[in-house]
Each structure stands twice: as C-alpha cells, then as structure tokens.
Design goal:
The relative contact order is 0.13. This protein is an alpha/beta fold and 289 residues long. It contains nine helices and seven strands. The chain folds into two domains: 224 residues, Rossmann fold; 33 residues. The protein has a seven-stranded parallel β-sheet, sandwiched between helices.
Amino acid sequence: MNISLKGKNAIITGTSQGLGQTIAREYVLAGANVLMCGRNKETLDKTCREVGELASSGQCVIAHLADVSKYEDVQDLVQTAEKTFNQIHVLVNNAGIYGPLGLAEEVDWDDWVQAIGINLLGSVQMCRAVLRHFKNQRYGKIIQLSGGGATAPLPRFSAYATSKAAIVRYAETLAEEVHEYGIDVNAIAPGALNTRLLDEVLEAGPQKVGVAFYERAVQQQEQGGSPEKRAADLAIYLGSEQSDGISGKIISAVWDPWEDFEKYTQDLKTDVYTLRRIVPEDRNMGWGS
C-alpha cells in the first residue's frame, strides 16, 4: 500500500533491532518524523543513524534511551517527544521480550515479573503517558504489537503469553474509553518472525521450550518466517488517516485482509477481530446455550 505519513510524528519503542527497527525505517520512508526508543545505547544509536540516513530534508529522526518498564523513563520519553515534535500523532508499542522459557513452576520468578513489566506494564505506561496529549488534540493512534500467546495457549512461555493476551484486552478496553476523543487503539499480530526471539528459542533448546515448539522454530528458521515488512506495512496503515475509526481490534498482518478494510467499515464495528469466549454453539454442539 502506498500510504503517506508525511507530517505525522511517531514514538516507536523497541527500535534497536528486529521488527521495531523495520517499523521505524518504514515510517521514515513513508514520511513520518520518528522518535526511536530502546534500552541499549550503542545499538539504538547505530540503528537511529542507519534509519536517519533514509530521511528526506526536513524530516526528524532521533533516538532516546529508555526502559518502558520504568515510570521516569516513560515520562521523560514522552516529554522529549512533545518538546521535539510539538504534536504526537502515533505511538507504536513494540518493546517486548520473551522472558523466561520453561515450565511455569520452574522458571525464575524475577525474570517472569520482568517480562510482565516490559511487555504489559511498559505498554500500559506508554499509553497512559500519551493519552493526555492525544485527548487534548482529539486525535491519536496507539498501535500495540501482540504475538503468540494472545489468542492461544503457549506452553513454556507463560510470562510472554500472559502479557500478550493481557495487552490485547487492555487495547480493546482502552479503545472503548477513548473513542469519543478520536483516538484509535489496535493490536497487531505480526506472524512468526525470524528475529532475536527466534534465536532465543533455538538457543534454549527442546528441553526448555518443548520438542514440538523447538521443531517448529527450526522449520521457521529454515523457511524464513513471516516478512517483517508485512507487519510494518500494517503499522503504517494503522498509523494513517486511512484507518480512522478502526479501533479495538487485533489484526493479523499475515492473514487478515486489512488492505481492503475500507470495504467492510460496518462489519468492523462488530466484535470481529477481538478476543472472545468460545461457547458450545460456536462449535455446533447442541448444549450450553
């Protein structure tokens, strides 16, 4: 899709590498001004220089060191964006980690809590920090990166799965709260990507992640996985005015026909593309209704 983000200002978290870096790059190529956030100064600065080289005259691309699980870092990050851009139009919550891999009762508790702190609480903190700004201007786009575990169980990845399911329901809930302010909140399921998270699975081995999951990871590595650009293109669409009014959804970058959503605006006002409980009737069972 040929979508322009010229004149839009975006905060994108977790941009030091992987999908976050790809989203930042594609946002810049689409014309946006971007504040890139990460926890590692060396890799963040390097990535920012590479992405910044793609900017046109007048575009602004800056890096800001921040840990989204820390309140002070989040406040400083958003204040920097406000001072730099004057207006903020888009927040992409991409920062995330797998956390500890293994059986739920055996993994390190502090590591489990840290994963919840970054994936869930960090995303919530970022949303809370930009909402005053978005409400005052009566416009804003919040895009949350979801992942495996949001819509199905993910054994041996309990912290990751729990945080991803929780953040999708938070996005759905927040979308209802801020709808009257012209703020759209959506989550992206990017598909199975060959990023550092896949490397973690392969390094952990079948004993920690399970034989079946490990074998799927090996196959994914060999076949290349889902393209990061596909998820980045969806992030551009959801950050653009073309998606105005679409909110409270979890959208698959790979499987859903989001390029054609304008044909289905009325259908998208229902509970399609949301988390819900499956009842016996949904499976053609003659009981429970």
